[in-house]
Design goal:
The strands form 4 sheets. The chain has a 10-stranded mixed β-sheet with strand order 1-2-3-5-4-9-10-15-16-17, sandwiched between helices. Strands 6-8-7 form a 3-stranded antiparallel β-sheet. α7 (281-297) runs antiparallel to α8 and α7 (281-297) packs antiparallel against α10. The chain has a domain at 167-205 and 286-396. It is an alpha/beta fold. Helices cover 30% and strands 15% of the residues. It is globular and about 65 Å long. The longest helix has 23 residues, at 212-234. It contains 14 helices and 17 strands.
């Protein structure tokens, strides 16, 4: 994943974000389908490859439900089940499920463009875990970080794609089928800018669009429909239901427990996105994007740029002597594909703000930056959000903020949440997201139901721990947070520190009575 190692980066290109190709709300989704048909049973050999491909809507009995062993849907442009899961784990990741887990898997759909996965171990403990989905990834994105962990403990596991039919695909600028919504790549560490490549997003192009309020409604629908599905499969309802989620999935957990506490017993929010009409990543990321070119050009020493970024709510940069990975800030700007902060403002401004537009011209719309083609944005023949400068100067319109209000978090939770976030998260920054949500919970009077832990050296993407910077993966902390949640719910444990933010360095620092 270093910018100098094109081979490694191309693995990320095809697995972590998309498959390359040539050329909540108060109600459930209304476009539903009938009951899922029963399927035939099969028992594939417990080997990671090749994976059995299960047709949608079929329940299968399998010898091993673990990530890499059980069935998935077929890989397709913009849909990479295994790649989605691998993108979220550290290179040192070891599955918490050490032995085969037999059981049943159901792959189905209950709404237009929606897909879900439900796994039920043979040794089911009678409980269900539903997982919100990070980014715009598939229903399989949580397979490594959550599914194996809960299945090994006997829980049924379910997740959805939120109604987003595919993540993103690569298309050449001259032939893209989405010229007004495709992202013209403006950084050249891998040669993509010089090649005239763009990214086309399912979020912006699918025939039945969604809103973030719809994502929240889908998470509620997933929860009660999987409870129904368990009744159909095993003849009884789950005795407990827990919600978990990372990033956008963490935001779904918060919204579910604010809006539909009757559906769940509690949740774990891992680096969840915070939404409010006047404060969100749509406000702070453009400030980061504005200051980063000067900071990079100065050799990561420009004090004015540093001050502007910290003032926008970012942790201080972490720098090191590795020329391939000199600055953690730079990893989230231009050093690692898919250029997280820049791409995010492009995609979400077009998704949420009716006042913005985008277009570019030519088969190679962006020319690499002459002084630093690796880390600095190039010059683009474009208008609107297709221009790097427009993404840096973006301010949400009044109409965008009206949209944000429809899915903003209130903090008014009626069931317990245990939250973790990384002290070195330079994307969904703790000050702007975790602390902001803590303040909202306390302001609502629900602080006694909320525990928050800031992981020292945690960053948004566990795979970034391989770059150095003193980073550590957060998955073990999320699992420990889940154990605490279960004790709070089932043992009525009184855990100190409710309504406050506590720094932790090891998973055992999160108390489990």
């Amino acid at each position: 994943m270093r910018f100098r190692l094109a081979t490694t980066a191309l693995v990320l290109l095809t697995s972590a974000f998309f498959t390359a190709c040539s050329g909540g709300s108060g109600s459930a989704p209304t476009s539903t389908v009938g009951a899922l048909p029963p399927g035939s049973a099969s028992t594939p050999a417990p080997t990671p490859v090749p994976q059995t491909i299960a047709p949608l809507g079929v329940t299968q009995t399998v010898a091993d439900l673990r990530f890499g062993f059980g069935p998935t849907i077929a890989k397709a442009p913009g849909v990479d089940p295994a790649g989605d899961a691998k993108a979220l784990i550290a290179a040192t990741f070891v599955s918490p499920a050490s032995a085969p887990i037999p059981g049943t898997i159901t792959l189905g759909s209950y709404a237009t463009n929606e897909r879900f996965v439900l796994r039920v171990p043979t040794a089911w403990n009678g409980k269900l875990v539903v997982a919100g989905t990070p980014a715009t990834r598939s229903e399989f994105a949580n397979d490594a970080i959550w599914s194996d962990f809960v299945l090994a403990r006997g829980y049924a596991f379910a997740s959805s794609n939120k109604g987003i039919s595919y993540n993103a695909v690569v298309e050449s600028a001259g032939v893209t089928s989405a010229p007004t919504t495709a992202y013209p790549i403006a950084f050249n560490p891998l040669g993509f800018e010089a090649a005239g490549l763009t990214l086309k997003f399912g979020l912006l192009t699918q025939s039945v669009p969604t809103t973030i309020a719809d994502w929240n409604a889908d998470f509620a629908a997933l929860t009660y429909k999987m409870q129904d599905q368990l009744r159909a499969l095993v003849g009884k309802s789950p005795t407990r239901t827990y919600a978990v989620g990372l990033s956008n999935g963490g935001a779904q957990v918060r919204s579910l427990i604010e809006q539909h506490p009757e559906l769940v017993d509690g949740g774990v929010d891992w680096s969840g996105v915070f939404w409010s009409p006047n404060a969100s990543f749509m406000d702070y990321m453009p400030k980061f994007n504005t200051a980063m070119p000067s900071y990079i050009a100065s050799g990561f020493t420009d004090s004015t740029a540093q001050a502007a970024i910290v003032a926008a709510g970012y942790p201080a940069d972490i720098k090191q002597g590795n020329p391939a990975h000199p600055s953690l800030w730079s990893e989230y700007f231009s050093n690692v594909f898919p250029y997280y902060s820049d791409l995010t403002i492009f995609e979400y401004s077009l998704y949420l703000d009716p006042q913005v537009a985008s277009s570019f011209s030519g088969s190679k719309p962006c020319v690499p930056n002459a002084s630093d083609p690796v880390r600095l944005p190039g010059t683009c023949a474009a208008t609107g959000m297709a221009l790097p400068a427009s993404r840096a100067s973006y301010v949400p319109s009044f109409f965008a903020r009206q949209k944000f209000a429809a899915f903003s978090h209130t903090g008014a939770i009626a069931k317990p949440i245990v939250s973790i976030a990384g002290s070195a998260d330079m994307f969904i920054t703790p000050q702007n997201n975790a602390v902001a949500y803590l303040n909202a919970v306390n302001a609502s009077g629900a602080g006694s139901l909320y525990h928050q832990y800031i992981v020292t050296g945690g960053t948004h993407v566990d795979s970034f721990a391989a770059f150095g910077y003193g980073l550590q993966p957060q998955a073990p902390f999320a699992w420990r947070a889940f154990d605490q949640l279960v004790d709070i719910v089932e043992k009525k444990a009184i855990v100190p520190g409710a309504g406050s933010s506590i720094a932790v360095s090891t998973p055992s620092d999160i108390p489990v009575p």
